[in-house]
Design a protein that fits this description.
- The protein is mainly α and 506 residues long.
- The chain has a single domain, classed as MFS general substrate transporter like domains (Growth Hormone, Chain: A).
- It is 71% helix and 0% strand.
- It is built from 21 helices and no strands.
- It has helices spanning 14-18, 25-38, 43-78, 83-86, 95-117, 123-140, 147-161, 164-175, 181-189, 191-206, 217-233, 236-239, 252-263, 277-285, 287-315, 323-351, 355-374, 378-405, 410-430, 444-476, 489-493.
- Helix 3 runs antiparallel to helix 11 (217-233), helix 6 runs antiparallel to helix 8 and helix 17 packs antiparallel against helix 20.
- The longest helix is centred in the first third of the chain and has 36 residues, at 43-78.
Length: 506
């Protein structure tokens, strides 16, 4: 069956599904997603509502994540301005790599618990608290005087940063339905690429302060990045609403329509949006949860190592560039990664396809790493950096949306997304060691290991794609209709992804 015959997340009736041989069935399936919603909320009203949400929510969460990512990875920029020397890290040791990776120990430990409790609290205030405390830790990291103090700060930074990313992914799913969420996730997650670019720009500018007031440049980089984060935390509760039902910037009609748009999707009942122990258990026992988690481990391992070591990789290309020039050269690499990701996310929402972009992104990264391994001159190696960036954000960002849209019940979605992010971020512990000082300037072992992880990721995402495709085919042919026997309409709607009317997003 061709892809056009299996439209993602469709809604159809059992009679239509049993008519698998009828040529009109594909057309019905393609139109079913929108038809059910538009009978209650017309397209123009939905667009107007989305504009209101976008103007209020998206800029703030993008700014928060910009601060988050810069505070986490600016250690890569700081390295070029005396960090290791000032803190007494021996030349040739892996203490720097340890300081980078240790953050992810606490980061991973606190992600899933945070994801399970955020909805029990006021999400906007909870997120503001996280921003405030990691901002304080990030700011005071500038005052470290030895390696032990740096490690302690990185561990604390991981504690408070852990809840932000999974929390925002869940937060967005409260306001945007699955047809519209991928592009919003892209704006949010893609900000990490902008953070990398701005980090290089800020480091380039702040590097001129090296020696001012008796401080080395690395201290200024960390301090000036940390202070805006603390100030941002004071504004967050006044901008972000806690839920659609309490969003003060929406009219009463807007709030009703927003809740209705979410609930009219198959599986999106009021009960399904509560945290149930059985849903959490179902997430833990589902092989797809772990396939997504391992796939994201492969992707985020590449993303974190690439983001932290990009200045070092460019510096070691042998072109003789100054530290300031190296910082500037990271900027276009990140901007290209962001631009490609946003375009792919827009097209992903338009086509309601996700897996193709995860797989294609990883394959693109493999090509980029091959360019770097070839080491056939500065031009080819620098081009490899651009190609890697084109695939990294697209593949890892789309995977976050893919797992969410295929888990309509909140408890399972919270657990599955939490584990995907937790295990994915666990790669941050080992990622810094892919680029050991002993392997400079070619870093062949690191590039080779990166390609191996990417091949594993391609295998997992390809398997998920074909499994979803096969399940959709079974539902369209009526082979899953037995699940509805003896059930009321309300009970059928509570089946979540097992509802025969629910089609997976490919």
């Amino acid at each position: 069956m061709m892809d056009s015959e299996i439209q993602a997340s469709g809604h159809t009736t059992p009679d239509e599904k049993r008519s698998g041989s009828n040529p009109s069935v594909p057309e019905k399936i393609e139109q079913a997603d929108d038809a059910r919603v538009l009978r209650s909320v017309d397209a123009e009203t939905e667009k107007r509502l989305l504009r209101k949400l976008d103007m209020r929510i998206i800029p703030m969460i993008c700014w928060i994540y910009l601060m988050n990512f810069m505070d986490r990875v600016n250690i890569g920029n700081a390295r070029l301005y005396g960090l290791e020397e000032d803190l007494g890290m021996p030349i040739g040791s892996n203490q720097y790599q340890l300081a980078v990776g240790i953050l992810f120990v606490t980061y991973c430990l606190f992600e899933t618990p945070s994801n399970l409790i955020i909805k029990r609290l006021k999400p906007a205030r909870y997120l503001a608290g996280l921003v405030f405390f990691w901002g304080l830790v990030a700011t005071f990291t500038a005052f470290c005087n030895n390696f032990a103090a740096l490690v302690a700060c990185r561990l604390l930074l991981g504690v408070f940063e852990a809840g932000l990313f999974p929390g925002v992914i869940l937060y967005l799913s409260m306001f945007y339905n699955k047809r519209n969420v991928s592009l919003r996730n892209a704006c949010f997650y893609g900000t990490s690429a902008i953070a990398g670019a701005l980090g290089g720009l800020v480091a380039y500018a702040i590097g001129e302060l090296d020696g001012a007031a008796g401080w080395r440049g690395w201290r200024w980089i960390i301090l000036i990045n940390g202070i805006p984060t603390v100030l941002t935390a004071l504004v967050v509760p006044f901008v972000l609403p806690n839920s659609p039902e309490t969003a003060g910037f929406l009219t009463e009609e807007d709030r009703r329509n927003l809740v209705l748009l979410r609930e009219l999707e198959v599986g999106q009942t009021k009960a399904a949006q509560l945290l149930h122990k059985d849903d959490v258990k179902a997430g833990a026992l589902d092989w797809k949860t772990w396939a997504f988690a391992i796939g994201q481990f492969c992707g985020l391992g590449m993303l974190y190592s690439f983001s932290v070591f990009l200045p070092t990789i460019i510096f070691e290309m042998g072109a003789g560039w100054s530290r300031q020039v190296v910082q500037a050269l990271t900027i276009p690499v990140y901007f290209l990664g962001f631009a490609v990701y946003v375009v792919c996310a827009w097209y992903s929402d338009k086509t309601q396809k996700r897996g193709y972009f995860c797989i294609g992104g990883f394959l693109t990264c493999i090509v980029g790493y091959i360019f770097l391994i070839a080491n056939q001159g500065v031009g080819l190696s620098f081009a490899g950096c651009f190609i890697v960036a084109m695939g990294l954000w697209t593949s890892t960002g789309t995977a976050f949306s893919w797992i969410g849209v295929n888990n309509p019940r909140y408890g399972k979605r919270a657990f599955a997304s939490g584990m995907q992010i937790t295990i994915g971020n666990a790669a941050g512990v080992s990622a810094p060691f892919l680029f050991s000082n002993a392997d400079a300037p070619t870093y062949y072992p690191g590039y080779g290991a990166s390609i191996g992880l990417l091949v594993l990721g391609v295998t997992l995402y390809t398997s998920l794609h074909f499994w979803y495709r096969n399940q959709n085919k079974r539902k369209l042919e009526g082979k899953e209709d037995y699940r509805m026997e003896g059930l009321s309409e309300e009970e059928i709607n509570e089946l979540g992804e097992h509802n025969p009317r629910y089609l997976y997003t490919l």
